[in-house]
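explain this:

___
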Amino acid sequence: MQFGIFTVGDVTPDPTTGRTPTERERIKAMVAIALKAEEVGLDVFATGEHHNPPFVPSSPTTMLGYIAARTEKLILSTSTTLITTNDPVKIAEDYAMLQHLADGRVDLMMGRGNTGPVYPWFGKDIREGINLAVENYALLRRLWTEDVVDWEGKFRTPLQGFTSTPRPLDDVAPFVWHGSIRSPEIAEQAAYYGDGFFHNNIFWPADHTRRMVEFYRKRYAHYGHGTPEQAIVGLGGQVFMRKNSQDAVTEFRPYFDNAPVYGHGPSLEDFTEQTPLTVGSPQQVIEKTLAFREYAGDYQRQLFLMDHAGLPLKTVLEQLDLLGEEVVPVLREEFAKGRPAHVPQAPTHQSLLAAKEKKEKEAATV
């Protein structure tokens, strides 16, 4: 399995001090968090994409390109690439460029985002959200897999004899995850193409996540990509840890109570009982995360949200130390136990390239 962190890049006041970081401070903090993720042995750093306050990651490729230059092993991903409002041509070219710079350590998570006004800002109609996601991604795939593209659709000017540059590294497009919390149409899209499906897994109870993942797995098999167990699944999650569980609860409570997303709603206790949020000791994080397999099956990627709600950088880095030293090594070992041999690992550039070369060799011998 791959383990990592994802960030939404929110600029939120620290409720314990009242101080709000500057945009520069928050951007620099996100870079520091990515570098720390590699230092403690995590596999993935993923950033969201937003075009409105109080968020800063409006240009994921700029940030990931900078991080690529300062890391060696970390897989660089997005936790949302707005397939609905970005031009597929620009996505194809930007992420192929990043792929070359990062020596293949790149994948993407397609999503529609959670900000309605972003659609008119980019000249789109939110009522066409699903249709935009479907059409734009179909074009993006062609731009990555075909050297010359003739195309005409509903939402974009036609293309005639167009070649996206640079071409994907080694003629292998970045692996794509389709992220969705509640839209079966997106799970269907992921299954149709044989891509990965990522469930945010933060705000919803286990039964909802189970239904979405099971639907994707069944449709993946329906389209002939393999058995349901071979589908590529990723999950999110949010944790806050201290050595002593009560210390974690006491420290995190003001951040939870004032968070822009889930603050001023259910209590911390209710939220941790009803959703995957884990606030406690490293052992509690291990136990709850291992339980995800009960409703998601053997899956390939686990990302944690750790820098949300105004937590100061020092605290987040301490959390990453705990995650890398005490949690992830145990999770790697425990998730590997009993994992069927036919369940694939998370795709990487190297594994996709090897599969491509094997297919070409087999075709040459026919």
In short: DSSP finds 13 helices and 13 strands in the chain. The two ends are 35 Å apart (CA to CA). The mean pLDDT is 94.
